Amino acid sequence: MDYHYPDEIKARLKRIEGQVRGVLRLMEEGKPCKDVVGQLSAVRNASDRAIAQIVAENLQQCLLDEQTSGGDTSKLVKQAVELLVKSR
């Protein structure tokens, strides 16, 4: 199955990439730990939101496909929850 990742998610990841570059720049400039950790926390939060969005969109499509074929969707929901738990 080929996955389609919306441009919105790709743009979100590009912003995260920019945030990581910003963290590295802070470190190279010798900025205080508080500033570096604050930015890393922002990166983590943004990453968590991206993961949740990717899992949610994938789950939605998988549920539709499974319902169309008359299959059991409970396994898909369980897998999605496991992905989210594993990502933390």
Q: Residue ranges: pLDDT <50 for 5 or more in a row? A: none
Average pLDDT taken over every residue: 88
Q: Describe the largest sheet.
A: none
Taken from the alpha-carbon principal axes, the silhouette is: elongated
Radius of gyration: 17 Å
DSSP strand tally: 0
Contiguous helical run count: 3
**Structural class designation:** mainly alpha
Q: CA-to-CA gap between the ends?
A: 26 Å
Strand/helix succession:
HHH
Percentage of residues in strands: under 5%
Descriptive overview:
The structure is a single chain. The chain has 88 residues and is mainly alpha-helical. 82% of the residues lie in helices and 0% in strands. The protein has helices spanning 7-28, 33-68, 74-87. It is elongated, with a radius of gyration of 17 Å. The two termini are 26 Å apart.
Task: Please describe the topology of this protein.
Elements: H1 7-28, H2 33-68, H3 74-87
Helix pairs in contact: 1-2, 2-3
